[in-house]
Amino acid sequence: MVIGAGQAGLSASYHLGRLGIDHLVLDADDGPGGAWQHRWDSLTMDDVHGVADLPDDPAPGRGSERANDVIPQWFADYERTHRLPVLRPVRVGSVRSEGELLVVRAGARSWWTRTLVNATGTWSRPFVPHYRGVGDFGGEQYHTATYPGVDRLRGKRVLVVGGGASAVQFLGEIAPVATTVWVTRREPEWHDGGDRLDGRAVIRRVQDRVRRGLPPASVASVTGLRLRPQEERAAALGAYRRRPMFERIEPTGVRWSDGSFEPVDVIVWATGFRPAVGHLAPLHLTSEHGGVRLLTTGADVQTAVTAAADPRVQLVGYGPSASTIGGNRAGRAAALAVQRYLAEPLEAAG
To answer: Which domains does the chain show, CATH number per domain?
Structure first.
């Protein structure tokens, strides 16, 4: 059983099929596309930070087309071409253990399986930190998951909260048409685009957290920030002069601890997401540190997918594999882990 038909879930399904393993993919959305179908209309293929190829199928190229059109169509074609067994819409509510088997429940429907590949990503769990007065704000508030696009924000005073790549991208398109203020908890770390970025070392930092059972940090959060050509105009306008976090939110703006006040019409929370693994809670996979500890073997840290607390469960798109490239590597690793598990006698595996 695979839960989720985003990039990691499609990759896992492809590799399971290549290994001759019967399986079913349950997807919560009405149609193909994973989280991409929910992204904002102004996000073009030129704007995305990179989409990895799917197994045996190159990713669409850059261009001015909307990403929320191009990538869902690519996923749909991929499902059809490779005859992936995707069933939708199915929103899984829980996964429980009954003896050697796992029971996947979605409303009145249930499926029994010996193994599970979880590929539910993070999009359905947007994170918004709580600040005093947030409920009193009289303007508009959006999270990355609900961002309406730049046209809705023209001429307004917009506060962008968050220190990641999404915040940089939002500022890049908003600053030329609106007044922006950028706040982050920590001073942003910029990457100059040179050779000093060791991608493998970055991923190991993320992997070390899941090895210890800590909540995973995104790979993007530890690579540093870069400005792309389309963001240079915003930089010239001063959009990336960051201010520290405010103390509280008031009906017409935000106030800092020194008493200074900034009037704003809109708050955009580019504050990230959390792994969508609540349906796995009955399996008690979470460590005392709040994350799912993964078994780590081999040199490729992006293939750490097996839950230490229950080897029947593989998590792809989680922790070190929370990227399109990582999701593909993890999809293959999960399929191989399933193959190894199914090769064991049922009583021994349990």
So the answer is: 2-124+274-349 (3.50.50.60), 134-190+225-269 (3.50.50.60)
Rounded Cα distance between 350 and 342, Å, is 11
Structure tokens at 157: 């005073």
Residue pLDDT, tens place only, 83-106: 999 999 999 999 999 999 999 999
* Predicted confidence (pLDDT) per residue in 324-339, tens digit: 555 678 899 999 999 9
pLDDT digits (tens, 9 = 90+) for 116-131: 999 999 999 999 999 9
Residue 41, number of CB atoms within 10 A of its CB? 14
Per the CB < 8 A criterion, the answer to whether 11 and 54 are in contact is yes
The burial of 99, by beta-carbon neighbours within 10 Å (0-12 exposed, 13-18 middle, 19 or more buried), is given as exposed
Encoding tokens for residue 105? 């429940």
How far apart are the C-alpha atoms of 169 and 176, rounded to whole Å? 12
CB atoms within 10 A of CB 88: 15
pTM: predicted TM-score of the whole model, two decimal places: 0.85
Rounded to an integer, what distance in angstroms lies between the CA atom of residue 85 and that of residue 12? Answer: 12
Please give the structure tokens belonging to residue 185.
Answer: 């908890």
Our measurement of the distance from residue 298's CA atom to the centroid of its chain's CA atoms, rounded to an integer in Å, reads 24
